[in-house]
Structure formats: structure tokens, C-alpha cells
Write a structure and sequence with these properties.
The chain is mainly alpha-helical. The chain is about 70% helix and about 5% strand. The chain contains eight helices and two strands, in the order ββαααααααα. The N and C termini lie far apart (about 55 Å).
């Protein structure tokens, strides 16, 4: 029986790079989801859930444990986001409009994100000692992986609220991710993050234009 969820089960070779089914399908659904959210389409949430489940399996197998745990958060927040985007705001009776958070809140959220990232990195650097039955080997790049993970948590939450600054978090995450995944030799995902970077830049411009039209 072919194990389609295994990173060692190859679907095809792309310019000499062995592409697993789980990496390829996870990439396609994730890319589709990010494009949909840049266009403010509600379909982004169910499409994203499929990509999340596939990446959860992938990241466990390549020992990016923070990224694996990140997918659990994405799964929960995607369900919430799906509901939130179709729920009218109490004060306007309309679907959520894109906007910036107050400046004081932006600074507070950034400070919390940095502090939690450091704490998570410290934990993940020792996770193979704390839970050896589950995490069989030492985590790769625990602090950098934790930073992108926590920044992604923040960005996703802000995106659910349709806050424009969410895109700035994604841009930073994408730049780091391009290097990290290339080094971990999941090069198709590294390439995906190049595309994500351009979509994030385009998404920020699109949401800014929308905010100016609304106001």
C-alpha cells in the first residue's frame, strides 16, 4: 500500500527535486488559500484547512516541530475565521471591513510576539529531552522556527480581524521562511514562500486601497 502521507513517497521529480505527494498537495492548497485571502474571499478558510492538515503531517516528518504545532493553531483559527468573516459587525451590520489597529495596540502585540517567540524557542530547543517518546530528535533551528511560528500566529489572528498590519507580519515570515525551508531541503516550499512574499506585498497594497475607499 502506498503511503501518500509519507514524505518519502515521491509523486514526481521536479528538475531533479523529489516531490512528495504530501508536500505537493499541501503547497497547492496553501498557495490557493493565500491568494484567496489577498482577494478577501471567504473560500480561503475551507481551502486553507486542507493545506493545514497536509502540512501538519509534513512538518512532523522533517522535525520542524514548531511549524507542526503551528498547523494545529491554524486549524482552530481557520474555523473561527470562517465564522468571523461571515458574521456582521454589531455596530455597522456589515461584514468586517479592513483597517489598521490602534497604534498602541500594534506596539503591544509586537512586544508580546517577540517575548513569546523567545520563550517558545527555548522550549523547543529542549523538547526532545522533555518528550523523547514523541520528538525523537533535536529540533532544527528552534529559535528561528519559533519566531516565524509565533509571528504567523499573530498574523493569522490579525487577519481574522481584517487588520492591515497582518500583511507586514506575513512579509517578514515569508522572507525568513524562504531561507529556512531551502536549508531544510524542502525546496518546493521555499519556492512557495517566494510566491507567498509577492502575494503578501500585493495583499497589503490591495487591503490598503480597500481601506481608503471605505473611509
Amino acid at each position: 500500500m502506498i503511503k501518500f502521507w509519507s514524505v518519502n513517497t515521491i509523486a514526481f521529480n521536479l528538475m531533479g527535486y523529489p516531490m512528495s505527494y504530501v508536500e505537493f498537495l499541501g503547497t497547492i492548497f496553501s498557495l490557493w488559500s493565500v491568494w484567496l485571502i489577498s482577494q478577501r474571499k471567504i473560500l480561503t478558510w475551507p481551502v486553507g484547512i486542507v493545506g493545514v492538515l497536509l502540512y501538519m503531517v509534513l512538518f512532523y516528518q522533517i522535525r520542524l516541530y514548531s511549524d507542526m504545532l503551528e498547523q494545529i493553531y491554524y486549524l482552530v483559527i481557520s474555523v473561527y475565521g470562517w465564522w468571523r468573516w461571515i458574521t456582521p459587525e454589531r455596530d455597522t451590520g456589515k461584514v468586517l471591513q479592513v483597517r489598521y489597529s490602534p497604534s498602541s495596540k500594534i506596539v503591544l502585540i509586537a512586544a508580546i510576539t517577540i517575548a513569546v517567540s523567545f520563550a517558545t524557542g527555548a522550549l523547543m530547543s529542549q523538547i526532545h529531552h522533555l518528550l523523547p517518546a514523541i520528538f525523537l530528535e533535536k529540533a532544527s533551528f528552534p529559535y528561528l522556527d519559533a519566531l516565524t511560528t509565533i509571528m504567523s500566529f499573530t498574523a493569522m489572528w490579525l487577519m481574522v480581524q481584517k487588520r492591515i498590519e497582518s500583511w507586514y507580519y506575513w512579509i517578514i515570515v515569508d522572507v525568513i521562511g524562504i531561507w529556512l525551508y531551502y536549508v531544510k531541503e524542502v525546496k518546493f516550499i521555499a519556492f512557495l514562500y517566494v510566491i507567498f512574499l509577492f502575494i503578501a506585498i500585493n495583499g497589503s497594497i490591495s487591503w490598503l486601497k480597500t481601506a481608503k475607499i471605505v473611509h
